[in-house]
Amino acid sequence: MDLRFTPEEIAFRDEVRAFCRDALPAAIREKMIALRKLDKDDIVTWQRILNAKGWAVPHWPLEWGGTGWDGVKLYIFREEMQLAPAPEALPFNVSMVGPVIAAFGSEAQKRRFLPRMANLDDWWCQGFSEPDAGSDLASLKTTARREGDHYIVNGQKTWTTLAQYADWIFCLVRTNPAAKKQEGISFLLIDMKSPGVTVRPIVTIDGGREVNEVFFDDVRVPVENLVGDENKGWDYAKFLLGNERSGIARIGISKARLRRLKQLAAVERAGGRPLLEDPRFAAKIAAVEVELKALEMTQLRVLSADRHRKDNRPDPASSILKIKGSELQQTISELLLEVVGPYALPDQMAQEDRWNEPPVGPDWAGPLAPHYFNWRKVSIYGGSNEIQKNIIAKAIMGL
Ligand SMILES: Cc1cc2nc3c(=O)[nH]c(=O)nc-3n(C[C@H](O)[C@H](O)[C@H](O)COP(=O)(O)OP(=O)(O)OC[C@H]3O[C@@H](n4cnc5c(N)ncnc54)[C@H](O)[C@@H]3O)c2cc1C
């Protein structure tokens, strides 16, 4: 097994690196390095720059803006984006609903939605989870009843990320309540401006507004917004969730944050030496670096095996990458909190806008405590780590 990149892949990596260096606006790069929250404009701006270059949707079919890159090139591209560090293209558009419409949507849906998704002219959000349907997603209860050439949608979604910005939501809805759980579900595209759609914020432990509840009260949705066949939505959801897990180790993000961690730990502290000179703290950083290197090798082994895979099924090894990748991201956020030290005190946390307004301490300290709290999410979304362990037990260990 050869884990080295070919000369052509190294040239490609350098091309992506140079592009990020030249094209990423400095203000966005600085926010990313400082771990400040991005606003909607930052994400739209960067995705449009990528789209102008032809790189917003590299894994889509060629006719809809894809690049034809293989898995290794996609990996290199994502890692360079994360190392830049540049924002991720909006995953709801690019990695979730886009590929579903490209694979299963009608020609009219492809023409209407895909170019606008790639350019982020429409912001999409994901309406899968419900109050009693998260890990057990197939228990979802939101209904869509056919009435002439419309569906009438009633129910509630939850944890809907950035729904406050969204023009459209892609939803799993129950179209046949009499069928077995997985067999009565359909995949429906709903205009967020439709009468009867209400978005209510959920304020999270970091004080931010990243997730929402979305309510549907007799919302009329044209039948032309059904993707694929009625009651086949579960198949499309499985396809989507398989895509969601690929690249979830986010090794480039961890590398970039580790770089930031070392930089901040090297800063002289009031009344003391830099934390990096404390051998116990330096040992913690070294341990993370070793684990990250091991994860990178595992990721490259999976990619190397992928080069020879004939089928398109998600490799169950991606569950290992998800668990280990999210654990490392959380460990790094904990070490960043150690670097902040007393500036993460509760009175700092009580400020109105914790992400952007550090009231005490150095400017760099402000976002680190909210970042720590926010990053608890990575072991939950994309399929919680416990669910990933179940997948490993069944698919890899045969239990
Ligand atoms: C920040 C954030 C953003 C999100 N964004 C979106 C979004 O945009 N759209 C969307 O649709 N959803 C979103 N989600 C929802 C996410 O997919 C669910 O939170 C996740 O699937 C877990 O479901 P749940 O919250 O209902 O927890 P539950 O499924 O109730 O699980 C609770 C606990 O029990 C454990 N557990 C459950 N079942 C098992 C089992 N069989 N074996 C072992 N342990 C088990 C879980 O691991 C977890 O620890 C988001 C979640 C978060 C935290």
Structural overview:
The protein is an alpha+beta fold. The longest helix is centred in the C-terminal third of the chain and has 28 residues. The chain folds into 3 domains: about 80 residues, no CATH class; about 110 residues, Butyryl-CoA Dehydrogenase, subunit A, domain 2 (Beta Barrel); about 150 residues, Butyryl-CoA Dehydrogenase, subunit A, domain 3, CATH 1.20.140. β6 and β7 form a beta hairpin. The site of flavin-adenine dinucleotide (FAD) has 18 residues, from β1 and α13.
Number of strand segments: 8
How do the helices and strands follow one another from N- to C-terminus?
HHHHHHEEEEEEEEHHHHHHH
CATH superfamily of the largest domain: Butyryl-CoA Dehydrogenase, subunit A, domain 3
CATH architecture of the largest domain: Up-down Bundle
**Which structural class matches the secondary elements?**
alpha+beta
Count of individual domains: 3
Radius of gyration: 22 Å
The CATH class designation of the largest domain is Mainly Alpha
